[in-house]
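Section 3.1: Structural characterization of target chains.
Under the original work plan, the team committed to producing a structural model for every single-chain target entering the pipeline before any wet-lab resources were allocated. The record below documents one such target. The sequence was received from the expression subgroup and is listed exactly as submitted; it comprises 119 residues.
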Amino acid sequence: MGRIAESVLYHRVGSRNILKGQLEALIDESRRPNIQLQVLPREDPMNACLFGPFMVMSFPNAAETDIMYTEALTSALYYEEDADVETYTTLFRRLNMAAANVSQSRALITRALKEMVGP
């Protein structure tokens, strides 16, 4: 399961062919049955809450607590305090509700591909 902001679809790093390959790979991967890729539309107010990528890691053993992981420029941070993890878990749930569904997300990626690299 993955969520990305629509703005990253237009952030070109490298050549036009590299961007084309990346967007095509996202479309291909989004069709796999074990992948749920959703895009947060540019106009959604939830974009104001994004300060970079993060991951909430949950474990099957009830004795293990959830951990929130994020990367910074020169380090990685892990948060284990319940309040910190809950803040990010709540943010993730809200992003999940705000993101376009899978087929709409694929359409947003396809539109970005057409706009950025042409037919």
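The two ends are 29 Å apart (CA to CA).
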